[in-house]
Amino acid sequence: MREITIGKNDAGQRLDRFVAKALPLLPPALLQKYIRIKRIKCNGARCQRDQRLEAGDVLSLYINDEFFDKPREDNLFLTLFQPRLDVLYEDENILLADKRPGMVVHADETEKVNTLINHIQAYLYQKREWNPRRENAFTPALCNRIDRNTGGIVIAAKNAPALRVLTEKIREREITKKYLCAVLGRMEPPEGRLDRFLLKDEGRKQVSVYRRPVPGGKSAATLYRTLAVQGELSLVEAELLTGRTHQIRATFADAGHPLLGDGKYGRGDVNRRYGETRQALYSSFLRFDFPTDAGPLEYLRGRSFQVQRVPFAEKYFSPALQKSG
Prior knowledge:
Elements: E1 2-5, H1 15-22, H2 28-36, E2 40-42, E3 45-46, E4 58-61, E5 87-90, E6 94-99, H3 116-126, E7 141-142, E8 151-157, H4 160-171, E9 175-184, E10 191-201, E11 206-210, E12 218-230, E13 233-240, H5 247-254, H6 268-274, E14 281-288, E15 304-306, H7 311-324
Parallel strand pairs: 8-14
Antiparallel strand pairs: 1-4, 2-3, 2-4, 5-6, 6-8, 7-8, 9-13, 9-14, 10-11, 10-12, 12-13, 14-15
């Protein structure tokens, strides 16, 4: 419990508005709840959210210490009273989240609070599985990332041993990842492999695609197979053999089959015609192959996970998929 004595400069304010300014990390909904259940008292008695404070009033705050901290990028998860999270799988070591398109995985110049990692940390904090004040260094962390406008499976580690194992397994390509994408035209052949070299331009946040080695370029290999065709669009499953920035988007565009909705590598006229502003790309499948020892995550060897629904696949390919099924 902490106490705050109201000075003359704070007098006259509504109680709830004063506490909101004094504790900016406390979510508004949680603030109102704490007033209602008497975890915030004024002069030792129950208080009302709209009562006016007077100089000399003593507020008693029965609130976790974390909410008294100054806002920083690493504690903004506290402001999320109701985490928005689609959990595909969870155990004591890992969490698989089905990220919806439009959400960033980590804070960037456009978004600091509404990020996937903040929602995961808020979720685990509220479940009392993790408390930053009881940890010396570790925080729940993402093991892979996908673009803001790409949806699908993201792996989070709940503890340091799991993070170490997953980081190694991803680096050694011991986890299979498959994506669904809607591309323009029909792939020929309908199943095959795309081998390219990608050169990243950090300033433009874009990659250039080459069909031969170039200085600074990195090899990018992608397996693909066509699952359905509907009009001018094809639903394609892509498996990454390498993990390069914008690999699927850039290599399929170079092959003459840009992703629907892709504003960076796609066709603006087609995107406008369909009214799509986000690339039709979804990380839909994950398998823990683990050909080598996985330590505390050995129980995951051979397990696979798949999302239940992919919005653009349902929107554009349902008749074709039902027919093929």
